[in-house]
TrEMBL record:
Keywords: ATP-binding, Ion channel, Ion transport, Membrane, Mitochondrion, Mitochondrion inner membrane, Nucleotide-binding, Potassium, Potassium transport, Transit peptide, Transmembrane, Transmembrane helix, Transport. InterPro entries: AAA+_ATPase, ABC1_TM_dom, ABC1_TM_sf, ABC_transporter-like_ATP-bd, ABC_transporter-like_CS, P-loop_NTPase, Type_1_exporter. It is found in: Mitochondrion inner membrane. It comes from Bactrocera dorsalis (Oriental fruit fly). The chain crosses the membrane at residues 127-147, 185-203, 272-299. This is Mitochondrial potassium channel ATP-binding subunit.
Amino acid sequence: MIRLLATNCNRHLTQQLPKFQQVPQTQLNGIRDFSGHLKNANKLLRVVEQQASRAAETGGKRILNTRLILLSGCGVTLGLGTRTYLAFARQAQCESNRLAGVIQKTLQQEDNKFDWRRFWSYLEPHLWELLGAIAAALIVAFINIRIPNLLGDLVNTLARYANTYVKDPLHNSFFSDVRRPASNLLSLYFLQSGFTFVYIYLLSRVGERIAAKLRQDLFKQIILQDISFFDANRTGELVNRLTADVQDFKACFKQFFSQGLRSMAQLVGGGVSLFLISPHMAAIALAAVPVVVAFMSYLGRKLRNLSKDAQAQSERATAVCEEALSNIRTVRSSACEYSEMELFKRETNEAARLAQDLGYGIAIFQGLTNFFLNGLVLTTLFMGGHLMSTESLSPGALMAFLVASQGVQRSLAQGSILLGTMIRGMTAGSRVFEYLQLQPKVELLRGYEIPPKHLNGEIRFENVSFAYPSRPDHVVLKDFNLILRPGQTVALVGASGSGKSTVAALVERFYEPTSGNIKLDGYKLSDIGPYWLRGNVLGFIEQQPILFATTILENIRYGRPAAKNEEIYAAAKLSQSHDFVSALPDGYDTNVGERGTQLSGGQRQRIAIARALLKNPKILILDEATSALDATSEAEVQKALDTAVLNRTTLVIAHRLSTIRNADLIVVMEHGRIVESGKHEELMAKRGLYYDLVRQQERQPVQEPQEIETNTAGGDESNFSTTTDRPNMQQG
Ligand SMILES: Nc1ncnc2c1ncn2[C@@H]1O[C@H](COP(=O)(O)OP(=O)(O)OP(=O)(O)O)[C@@H](O)[C@H]1O
């Protein structure tokens, strides 16, 4: 009976495994709630979860299934009863779905195979050029196979004159004898160089075009990902895939087709001609080939793993470097240059160590290959000499055999070098393809657009709950309800971490609510096209806007790329930027430097406001737009904002009173919930509630200076790591 139930449960679980990804988290939560009273089942589930996570770590679905059979058996023996058991089975089923996803992901990462189908989709458009290159490379290989025979003919001709003293060179038959084999050889040399040019040129064209297309597609795929993807991946690592990995892949591709294909053809053709020249000697030479092939495939597998680790580590080192350089001001102001150097050193040393291991493996392989090949030459000479002494082989045939075997030798030697490149290239390729297949959950262009005449700019939050995908257990907003009426300014205040910016991020559709709805003019935000929404309805001004390293004109135009210059000047005037921009020597053509560092914070902010106003948005979101500024700049920017918000629905996330004084509604948030709301005066009347909250942040009590114990040896306390997997600054 137990067995039957356990098998039944397991069958359910196994059937559900592939469907996992379609089961929404809410459903899982629902089922969890439904059987929340089943404490015993829950206890068991925790065990299941632990076991399954361990199974995921070890990468085995089978282990999971076996454990589930055992555990469901346990569930029954514990006497949970049929109803309980069924609830348990259902819950376990969903849990297993979730865990199967974890396992699948783990397995995918582990078993990141090279996607040949996708590779083919990149090759296909260049098929004719590629076939041309392959044909030319094969012709070169064929010519290379023919050359030893013709050389043999020439040597045989020359050998006839080896011990002959030529009295009258003009009247002996040497030239007429030599002309034919020599001219045959010359025309082959000529053809060989012509076809070499053709295949190298064609391959380079195909390789470069594929690499460019790969980079474009990868960039497109990355830039279209959900914001949560960027929460989970570091910029340096992404850039590394776009640059180093595509580069490695391209280099491997070119080498494989230029040298690899030729070497392979030469190997086969050379082998055949060796047999034709002297089957005896060829049989002896080729006897060792199976050993070499077995050895090659064994080492190839080992080297591929090593290469994967080395590339991942090099990516980590790039990420450290990229992060430090792009945040150079923070690094400098924190006096962290030397620790960054140390960190980079550690990461690059580790990358070097792994790359050295890889080099070590390749070196062993090449050394052994060389030994094998040289042994082959010696054996040929030894055997050939013996056959010549018994007159079963001519000197020309020995020469041809030697040259042909050297061709084979070169091909094998090249093959061993190529193996290293291939390993790197295929690893890089699979890393590129891995990101190419990612699909964002929210498609940028999908969804409808509200006709302009129906667009009023009303936002409603209806029982919205939300947890960030990277921290699903930490609920940031709970049953959040809020209405922003058209043209109204609503200010969100509250302690740090209470969820204010999250509200703004949800309006921007950077994330999707876990439950509940957000509506724009009665339409569900989730049904509206995010691209249209952000490009036409919303203007977003953040605390520290980032400008691009180009002119002020282009930076403002970023808000609406099709805007005319006159519209840009108008937006600049509206944002109080026109005067200071005109006073600059190059005016609107002034280059603002990387991230706009050549402008002051207040100027940057006003340019960002101009950028947002350029699209004439119905809704403005100001996320602490003035909190990073000093009093003078704040006053200037506030003036710009006061003009900007007129006739627009505005959501202000505020830390300072000055920014919310004119708000139509002030909403006080605490732990993801609204605790108080009303007009400025109303809230003042209610014990100055929001003043307290805001003041709490505005006027932090001055702390008594405390002596900070410094630990020169570097204790654990001074270690830090960021949310992503940035390595720890300190050793250990
Ligand atoms: N990208 C993210 N991934 C995971 N958790 C996040 C993310 N962004 C914010 N959080 C968490 O969500 C909670 C609310 O953050 P939010 O930024 O909305 O607060 P806030 O009220 O705007 O704070 P502040 O006033 O300090 O800007 C915090 O606990 C924060 O740690």
